Amino acid sequence: MKASFRLLTTRRFLPLFATQFLGAFNDNLFKQAMILIATYEIYSNARAEATFSAIATGLFILPFFLFSALSGQLADSMDKTRIIRIVKTIEIGIMVAGSAGLLMQSIPLMLAAVLALGVHSTFFGPIKYALLPQHLEGDEVLGGTGLVEASTYCAILAGTILAGKINAQAAAVLAIVVAILGWITARAVPPAPPTGEHKKLDWHLIRSSGRLIAATMHIPRLFNAILAISCFWMIGSILIIEFPPLVKNVFTADKEVASIFLAIFSVGVAIGSVLINRLLGGRVSARYAAGSVAAMALFVVLMSIAAENWTPAPPGTLFTLREFLTHHHSALANLSLLGIAVTGGMFVVPLYAFLTTTVEIEQTARTVAANNIVNSGAMVVGALLAAGLTQIGVSIVGVLMSVAVMCIFTAGLAWRLDRSCRDHEREQIHVDMD
Predict the structure, then answer these.
(1) Going by fewer Cβ within 10 Å, which terminus of the chain is more open, N or C?
(2) DSSP characters for 365-426?
(3) According to its UniProt record, where is this protein located (predicted)?
């Protein structure tokens, strides 16, 4: 299997890997620092904290819904590396504004930066996946996708942990420095000119989005894959929204524990990303997808049990990290969280590799962009659902149980995807025999 860690020694992969890592690190350093400031310094009740988290998540996702079609068109009609360099230059300005928001504890300025980061990620996202089949061999794509996903969640790990350990001033300076480093690594990404026939750009956001989805979703395998990935991200958006208030108001722990909680989640997804590549032996397949997300439902239920039976800290106090880790239900909470993340990584990584290998190379960016549009819509629904359930008084444990139900539904979609893939393989065998 060629697609392995040795890709990190090649120029056709390492600069993209480093640029992606630095970008994901910066996004999460800033967003986590902002959420911790809002949760522990600005707001003082669970409803306001969950609502702020939902608003921030929604603003970050909104550009994916609005601009993914345009970003996919640009990525398929221009040199992808040129777009990366433009995007990373803009990131420096975004982080300057966002850092000012952190220093002033300005909610409007911080949320504006989150919205701008969403735009930044909308244009970078299709490119990072579309570059892989263009720069890598066919049997390297799954391994490269796994490494990119693993690096993303390792970056989330580093960003979330660091945000809980440094003050706002340090986070502000570091965010700008990392943006500059990302600009430097982007300069080393090899050229990636368009491979297909040049098509005229459609600047009408709604029309172009509709056309892009229609052109992609009519393929049964892609339709099922995009729906399954979208359900996963809807689930993920709810979990990410609920984690900070869960830690503070149910587990009654301080902000360092909130960062560690997200860090465990990130480590787990990274483990799952690498593990599924090993299990599949580099072959792009949805074979384990249904079982992975069904197992994810079980771990969510176990997390709910840990939360329901948690003994809180004395009134007016919060558990420190050491106190949290020695709590008699801490092991169940942490192992459940790790299990949710590992199975999530095992579920979603092959599906992303599937998106980029099912279509022709010149169509990969548009396919990823179509996926991003549907994903972003699902994540917005997840954010609205989390906020709505909180507003009508549903407990955090109740929200977690609703996530478990969503996992079972997603397992059904994954099973349909695997079946459609197997049917397609049989059809191809018959065609080859004829």
Answers:
(1) C
(2) HHHHHHHHHHHHHHHHHHHHHHHHHHHTT--HHHHHHHHHHHHHHHHHHHHHHHHHHHHHHH
(3) Cell membrane
Question: Tokens at residue 228, please?
Answer: 């399954």
Q: What is the pLDDT of residue 2?
A: 43
Task: Look up the domain containing 283 and give its range.
Answer: 7-192+205-433
Q: Is residue 198 situated within a structural domain?
A: no
Indicate the angle between helix axes 205-217 and 220-245, nearest 10 degrees. Answer: 120
Q: What is the DSSP letter of 215?
A: H
- Name the nearest CA neighbour of 394 among 403, 425, 235, 209: 403
CB atoms within 10 A of CB 198: 9
Query: What pLDDT shows up at residue 429?
Result: 55
Q: Is residue 401 part of a domain?
A: yes
The per-residue DSSP string of 97-164 comes to: HHHHHHHHT-HHHHHHHHHHHHHHHHHHHHHHHHHHHHHS-GGGHHHHHHHHHHHHHHHHHHHHHHHH
Structure confidence at residue 3 (pLDDT): 43
pLDDT of residue 298: 94
Q: Is residue 329 part of a domain?
A: yes
